[in-house]
């Protein structure tokens, strides 16, 4: 077979990452030839391993081929259709409810839609993104309730980016807090309109004017003060001004003139996803354009679906979903990532190919050196200088899992760190217990169950399992566990100093001398440092102490005394003996 040449061959297009076997097939060469060329260039790879584009281009060139990058299909899954002015039809506004933990976001939404979500949530804290619809007159509004705890920063960020209006809830008795500022920042970065709900105005200590002043300092000046931000004083508990808040949201939405393409294939965002034991992967989606119907093919990130069933936010089976409407979708091949946008596909092959293309791009990013912010910490771990707490993590939803990863990544310092050795969505299984045993890991479950049989297995295998429903309890426990791994703090305290006035006898292990205590107090058995001209020459222990030729238990500043020092360092006239104590103190992360 004649060698191909660059002049006679058409360029061969390959993706960003490609398997060695597939690469050989595209070149029309035996895989052994490609592997041999890789080895010549110092790349040890088997037929099933993958190489990046740069490596493949070099190898292809060595073999006489011209390699070019395969034109990746534009990732429409992360693009929202932009309509021309006046195009499309009006759609319901999508509203995110955001703010600091315990400022009443979910309670406010409860009051607006007359339901009781907050009562069902662990610790009263929203753990996932949920979407709900209400009707005001003849108009629908879609609300997205975002988590309030600081660990769910990523969820709040995604919540802002898929919405039109953000209601920032601030408690009138508590004022602006760090998560309030973060929520405002996410909303501003997403370019959405902001409406402020000053909640809990009926509580003792409520001060709506102070809240407005604090918000003004952040650039949100109330309309009544000559600014552009609408602020409404409300009470979720008493139901005060809730209709006015909804009307303000509709007014702001009208100014935005929200429109969507109402027919044709649907596109939108993944709001939440989880693995259901009976239904498989389940995703809550928000339709942004088009009509979503049973039987449609969707691509979301690196997975795809043929829509098997659709449900509304109340769990009622529906046949289709329209722009601005949340829907529960079954039929995905794998659990999609929250925040991903979904796009339509003509058929299963097109959907599978599009998802595979995204997967290849994701794999290509992980082939090289990973970009880790804490690079020094990573190097220290590699060198064995950092102790790691291995964790196997199971969570109820993909959103929770991602937020937990983000939170646990923050639990570290230059000495200790949490290492998630395995993580997945779903209840704890027997294989999880076995893996945790093999890895010497702590088994953590977040909003998942552990049946009695698996609990007994974990006890037999001596695998520690901890179950949580509120994320800050989880992070607090792990922070404490990491603190116990830290070496105790050694506290060195100087308690006294003595100036040598005479040296009487010196041996290999002892020095008999005398001097005057210049500060503090000294006692037998104390540790000491021998200092000469400010430099430490050696160390020792005060074996004996005399004062006025009598054995004594202590000597104070101004006392002249005789000393028997155990040391291998010679002591000279004029030296200073620095006496010190050492104690250890437990540290925390």
Structure notes:
The structure is a single chain. By secondary structure, this protein is of the alpha+beta class. It folds into 5 domains: 12-69; 89-259, 3-Layer(aba) Sandwich (Rossmann fold); 267-365, Elongation Factor Tu (Ef-tu), domain 3 (Beta Barrel); 377-485, Rossmann fold, CATH 3.40.50; 489-585, Translation factors (Elongation Factor Tu (Ef-tu), domain 3, Beta Barrel). The protein has 14 helices and 33 strands. A hairpin with a 3-residue loop joins strand 26 and strand 27. The longest helix has 20 residues, at 348-367. It is extended and about 105 Å long.
Uncertain segments: 1-7, 73-79, 366-384
Strand content: 25-35%
Spatially, the strands of the biggest sheet line up as 7-8-6-9-10-11
The CATH homologous superfamily of the largest domain is termed P-loop containing nucleotide triphosphate hydrolases
CATH class division of the largest domain: Alpha Beta
Number of domains: 5
Secondary structure tally: strands: 33
Instruction: Briefly note the CATH topology name of the largest domain.
Output: Rossmann fold
**Which of globular, elongated, flat, extended, rod-shaped describes the shape?**
extended
pLDDT average, as an integer?
83
User: Helix tally?
Assistant: 14
């Amino acid at each position: 077979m004649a060698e191909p040449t660059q002049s006679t061959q058409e360029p061969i297009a390959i993706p960003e990452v490609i398997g060695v076997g597939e690469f050989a097939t595209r070149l029309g060469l035996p895989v052994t030839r490609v592997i041999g060329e890789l080895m010549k260039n110092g790349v040890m790879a088997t037929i099933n391993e993958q190489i990046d584009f740069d490596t493949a281009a070099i190898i292809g060139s060595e073999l006489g081929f011209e390699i070019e990058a395969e034109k990746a299909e534009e990732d429409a899954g992360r693009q929202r259709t932009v309509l021309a002015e006046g195009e499309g039809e009006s759609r319901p506004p999508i509203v995110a409810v955001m703010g600091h933990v315990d400022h009443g976001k979910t309670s406010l939404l409860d009051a607006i839609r007359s339901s009781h979500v907050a009562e069902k949530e662990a610790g009263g804290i929203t753990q996932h993104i949920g979407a709900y619809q209400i009707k005001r007159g003849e108009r629908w509004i879609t609300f997205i309730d975002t988590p309030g705890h600081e660990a769910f920063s990523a969820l709040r960020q995604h919540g802002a980016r898929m919405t039109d209006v953000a209601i920032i809830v601030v408690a009138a008795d508590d004022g602006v807090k760090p998560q309030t500022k973060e929520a405002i920042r996410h909303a501003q970065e997403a370019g959405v309109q902001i409406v402020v709900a000053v909640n809990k105005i009926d509580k003792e200590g409520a001060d709506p004017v102070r809240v407005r002043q604090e918000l003004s300092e952040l650039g949100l000046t109330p309309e009544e003060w000559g600014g552009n931000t609408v602020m409404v004083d409300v009470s979720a508990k008493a139901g005060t001004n809730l209709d006015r808040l909804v009307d303000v949201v509709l007014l702001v939405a009208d100014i935005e003139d929200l429109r969507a393409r109402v027919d044709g294939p649907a596109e939108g965002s993944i709001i939440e996803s989880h693995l259901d034991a009976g239904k498989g992967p389940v995703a809550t989606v928000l339709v942004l354009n088009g009509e979503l119907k049973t039987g449609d093919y969707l691509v979301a990130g690196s997975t795809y679906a043929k829509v098997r069933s659709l449900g509304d936010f109340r769990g009622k089976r529906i046949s289709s979903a329209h722009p601005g409407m949340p829907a529960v979708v079954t039929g995905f091949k794998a659990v999609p990532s929250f925040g991903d946008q979904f796009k339509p596909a003509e058929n299963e092959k097109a959907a599978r190919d599009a998802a595979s293309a995204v997967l290849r791009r994701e794999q290509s990013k992980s082939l090289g050196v990973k970009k880790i912010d804490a690079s020094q910490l990573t190097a220290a771990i590699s060198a064995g200088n950092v102790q790691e707490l291995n964790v196997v993590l199971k969570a109820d939803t993909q959103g929770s899992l991602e937020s937990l990863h983000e939170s646990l990544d923050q639990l570290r310092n230059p000495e200790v760190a949490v290492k998630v050795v395995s993580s997945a969505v779903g209840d704890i299984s027997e294989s999880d217990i076995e893996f945790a045993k093999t890895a010497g890991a702590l088994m953590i479950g977040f909003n998942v169950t552990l049946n009695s049989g698996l609990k007994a297995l974990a006890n037999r295998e001596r695998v520690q399992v901890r179950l949580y429903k509120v994320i800050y309890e989880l992070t607090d426990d792990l922070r404490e566990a990491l603190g116990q791994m830290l070496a105790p703090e050694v506290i060195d305290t100087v308690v006294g100093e003595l100036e040598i006035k005479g040296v009487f006898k010196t041996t290999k292990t002892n020095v008999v001398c005398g001097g005057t205590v210049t500060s503090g107090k000294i006692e037998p058995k104390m540790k000491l440092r021998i200092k000469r001209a400010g430099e430490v020459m050696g160390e020792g222990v005060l074996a004996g102490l005399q004062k006025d030729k009598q054995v004594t238990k202590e000597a104070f500043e101004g006392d002249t005394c005789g000393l028997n020092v155990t040391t291998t360092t010679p002591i000279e006239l004029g030296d200073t003996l620095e006496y010190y104590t050492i104690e250890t103190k437990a540290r925390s992360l």
